[in-house]
Write a structure and sequence with these properties.
heterodimer, A: about 130 residues, alpha+beta, Sufe protein. Chain: A, three-stranded antiparallel sheet, 3 strands, about 20% strand, B: about 400 residues, alpha/beta, seven-stranded mixed sheet, 13 helices, 12 strands, globular
């Protein structure tokens, strides 16, 4: 068993915000199966805030815990605040990640960022919201 | 909570009879077998009687057995030692693509020392085709090393057919029998090999024990220089308690083998049949019939092995996986990739290796625990979501 913190084990065994959002305002996908992990984040935006965040993840215990933690950290934040979530801050909130898992499984912040960028570019094009 | 240990490829429990046999050598009988006094005699007698027990397990002569510290050491010794001893005849070595790292990486080291290494591909079941071996042989080939069975997918290789290709050309053939010696019948004469590796921790003996059998007349260069222990082929004071344990475990394996196999195979067959029967999109890895008796391995699509392993552990079930995430190097198992599986499928690798303590109820428990775990991880998986939408057309 990899040495995971209690927080990682908690988020792995009881992941928060698993699922998809119907008609999401933004979607972000990262990773590929060769390196092991894939994450998709879905967001719903209201008044510049992340009203809802959901995810689906294919990967190890760390990847699932990271996704869950990012969703929890992001929910309710303004877009600007959410963009400031980094792999380091996620790992810190999880009370640390094993060294070899830090780069490969810690893609949640990137996936969330992509979802926000996706929302912003759609807004620019369509003028919606 | 029920505890079910299904990771016997990683470690087997020490049999009580083996522990009993070892105890005197952790106590009063502490002498050095190289000593000429009475204290040495006791240790030397134990050493030579263990050598006979190990030789009997594989149908060999006792003086052809060299004790080592592990299966890994035996493989290093065989690959490097046999190649180095024949290097005046040529510098070409042949291995299969699915060898254990202790063979694979020893071959890499030989490359650094100026040898050329050919890797033979395997088919989708992990079987080496004798024609492929024949095609890879050259005038300067001085060693072939192909495993007897693969510990990760359970496939047993056709060693008798493979050695037919090398024997008439006088090329030494080594087989890594770590997964088979003590588990299924192994006879060096029938296999037609010239060297064979084994390890005690695979058949209820102590960890840190191994042996290399080298046919009389085949030259091998020692890896460890020093005194003339093991006829000068492996220097260093012998680990007598461990060797005694290895000997006892070998004797018990020889006597009980048929019974053990008879007990394991039906349990293994239940897993092979009922697990894919109860969960969609599960593929059996390795050969469907020619496989180790206690070995059931699968790839579960759309999910990853480490997360499966962790959730099974939380239910008291111990298994292993060849997924990239479970390896320290973060690379998918080279065995599964060599068998042609995609990285995505290889990520779902899961491996159950049964032991003599397992009973039918253990299998019931695993078959009950698996589907909800797989379902739970699939509900989280973006790959499964895509599959459900495109293939199933529903949610």
């Amino acid at each position: 068993m990899p040495v995971y913190s209690k927080k990682v084990m908690d988020h792995f065994t009881n992941p928060r915000n698993v699922g998809e959002i119907e008609n999401p305002d933004g979607v972000g996908e990262v990773g590929n199966p060769v390196c092991g992990d894939m994450m998709t984040f879905y967001i719903k935006v209201k008044d510049n805030r992340l009203e809802d965040v959901k995810f689906k993840t294919f990967g190890c215990g760390a990847a699932i815990a990271v996704s869950s933690m990012v969703s929890e950290m992001a929910k309710g934040k303004t877009l600007e605040e959410a963009m400031k979530i980094t792999p380091r801050s996620v790992a810190d909130e999880l009370e640390g990640l094993p060294k070899q898992k830090f780069h490969c499984s810690n893609l949640g912040a990137q996936a969330l960022n992509k979802a926000i960028e996706n929302y912003l570019s759609k807004k620019k094009k369509g003028g919606k919201k | 909570m029920r505890k079910v240990y299904l990771d016997n490829a990683a470690a087997t429990p020490l049999l009580p009879e083996v522990r009993e046999a070892m105890m005197p050598y952790l106590g009063d009988i502490f002498g050095n077998p190289s000593s000429l006094h009475d204290w040495g005699d006791g240790a030397r007698e134990a050493l030579e009687s263990a050598r006979k027990q190990v030789a009997a397990l594989i149908g060999a002569n006792a003086d052809e057995i060299i004790f080592t510290g592990s299966g890994t050491e035996s493989n290093n010794f065989a690959v490097k030692g046999l190649a180095l001893a024949q290097q005046n005849k040529g510098k070409h070595v042949v291995i299969s693509a699915i060898e254990h790292f202790s063979v694979l990486h020893s071959a890499r080291t030989l490359e650094k020392w100026g040898f050329e290494v050919s890797e033979i591909a395997v088919d989708k079941y992990g079987v080496v085709n004798p024609d492929d071996l024949l095609r890879s042989l050259r005038k300067d080939t001085v060693l072939v090393s192909i495993m007897h069975a693969n510990g990760e997918v359970g496939t047993i290789e056709p060693i008798e057919e493979l050695t037919r290709m090398t024997r008439e050309r006088n090329i030494p053939f080594h087989t890594d029998a770590v997964a088979t010696a003590g588990t299924i019948p192994v006879n060096v004469a029938e296999l037609g090999v010239d060297a064979l590796s084994m390890a005690g921790n695979q058949f209820y003996g102590p960890k840190g024990t191994g042996a290399l059998w080298v046919r009389k007349g085949v030259r091998i260069m020692p890896l460890l220089d020093g005194g003339i222990q093991e006829e000068g082929r492996r220097a260093g004071t012998e680990n007598i308690p461990a060797i005694v344990g290895l000997g006892k475990a070998a004797e018990l394996a020889r006597v009980q083998m048929a019974d053990r196999m008879k007990r394991l195979a039906p349990l293994r067959n239940r897993l092979l049949k009922e697990l894919p029967g109860g969960i969609e999109r599960v593929v059996v890895t390795g050969h469907p019939e020619n496989r180790l008796p206690g070995h059931a391995s699968f790839c579960v699509e759309f999910i990853e092995g480490e997360s499966m392993l962790m959730l099974l552990n939380s239910k008291g079930i111990a298994v292993s996986s060849g997924s990239a995430c479970t390896s320290r190097a973060l690379k998918a198992s080279h065995v599964l990739i060599a068998m042609g599986l995609s990285h995505e499928i290889a990520q779902g690798s899961i491996l159950f290796t049964l032991g003599i303590d397992n009973i039918s109820e253990d299998i019931d428990y695993v078959l009950e625990a698996m589907p909800p775990i797989v379902d739970r991880l699939r509900q989280m998986s973006p790959l499964y979501a895509k599959f459900s939408k495109t293939v199933k057309g529903g949610k």
